[in-house]
Amino acid sequence: MLCPNPACQAEIPLLSSFWLANSVRHQAWVEVNGRPGKIDLGIRVVAPPTGIQLSDGTVKASSVTCPRCGTSMIAKEVREYATKVGFGHILYAVLAIDRKVRTYRAPTAEEIKRAERLATALLDELEETPDGTSPLPDEPITKSQFRILRSLVYGIDTFRGLFNDRQLYVLGSLCEAVRAAHTQMLDEGMQPDRAIAVATYLGLCVDRIADYDSSAGRVQFGGSSLRSAAARHRALLRRECSVAMPRAYSSRTIHSTL
Length: 258
Ligand SMILES: [Zn+2]
What we know:
- This protein has two domains: 1-107, no CATH class; 110-258, no CATH class.
- It has four helices and ten strands.
- It has helices at residues 75-84, 109-122, 165-187, 192-212; strands at 19-22, 27-35, 38-44, 59-60, 63-65, 72-73, 94-98, 101-105, 218-220, 225-227.
- The protein has a three-stranded antiparallel beta sheet with strand order 1-2-3, with no helix packed on it. A three-stranded antiparallel beta sheet has the order 4-5-6.
- The longest helix is centred in the C-terminal third of the chain and has 23 residues, at 165-187.
- Zinc ion binds next to loops.
């Protein structure tokens, strides 16, 4: 969101913490550098200098503080901004996992461009379900549920709004794969009841992935794992979200997600 200070107007990253990983084996953190109208985010994979406080990010108790000029917005002002203007999203860190070795780095310019455009373009390729249901969850969220579904107070009033386009494409593709698997099971002679049971099991896997891969899910900074949306409905403003495949979760295989 944009800083309301006329002399600053930097785009404030909404981070609950500047840590990406803070374990005995691994430390990675976000370095914030402000310049007029802009806040640059760098990724550091060394121990931070003594005295730097990284646990408190730019968001605290639903209020937001600009890291460049120190201007703060109270929760009510943040909600008004969200409903009138809306929050954006940026790719600011990439976590690669290769045989349990984790590497954090800043995204390349090409990755940022692709993250913004590629998935958006690919969404059109997702097919409707056989009964004509949209492949994207564009159903409205019941507005009377705002005390539980905190996205509503920030103007996010459809289930689709809980996901960015990359997350939507990953989840939509997985749903297509489950439907295709069900068809293939029947084609190969599996009993219909068993095929439905297996497809339901796979659907539950996708459901759990959606729980972790949404704007309401986030990176669990202490251990580099992912945290589900259910665990943080009251903290939706913390906007660090992830896009991951199940086998890429730290200790989370497709079976362990269930
Ligand atoms: Zn500012």
